[in-house]
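User: Sequence recovery, please. Input:
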């Protein structure tokens, strides 16, 4: 797992289970899917990242503060394990990105004039739609 904030493998709980879907006879006897559980509150991540992870509106985050991922895209357990760990790392990396604060700007004089000119033209068009007096 590569990322700015490394996850301790001891904090990630992985368990193998049978994958869903089509796959023939082999799917009924091989546990190739991976069920990953990561307790955010008990992790060694910095406190501000924990808060950002816990505040995200995501169906993969339980009420207990545990991120639950299921990886079953690949045919082998090792590839599914690697996929689940990479997805978890992407979630943590996304929580670690802090967007810069937006600086409010004023509209330019030219843009204000363009806006007012457009409003004036529109008012002229609408004024011509009224009743005609002879």
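Assistant: Recovered sequence (134 residues):
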């Amino acid at each position: 797992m590569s990322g700015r904030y490394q996850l301790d493998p001891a904090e990630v709980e992985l368990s193998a289970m049978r994958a869903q879907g089509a796959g023939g006879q082999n799917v009924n006897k091989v546990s190739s899917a991976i069920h990953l559980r990561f307790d955010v509150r008990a992790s060694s991540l910095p406190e501000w990242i924990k808060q950002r992870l816990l505040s995200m509106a995501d169906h993969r985050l339980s009420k207990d503060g545990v991120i639950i991922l299921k990886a079953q895209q690949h045919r082998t357990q090792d590839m599914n394990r690697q996929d689940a760990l990479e997805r978890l790392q992407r979630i943590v990396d996304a929580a670690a990105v802090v967007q810069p604060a937006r600086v409010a700007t004023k509209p330019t004089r030219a843009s204000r004039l363009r806006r007012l000119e457009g409003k004036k033209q529109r008012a002229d068009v609408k004024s011509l739609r009224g009743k005609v007096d002879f």
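The domain at 9-96 is CATH 3.30.160.20 (Double Stranded RNA Binding Domain).
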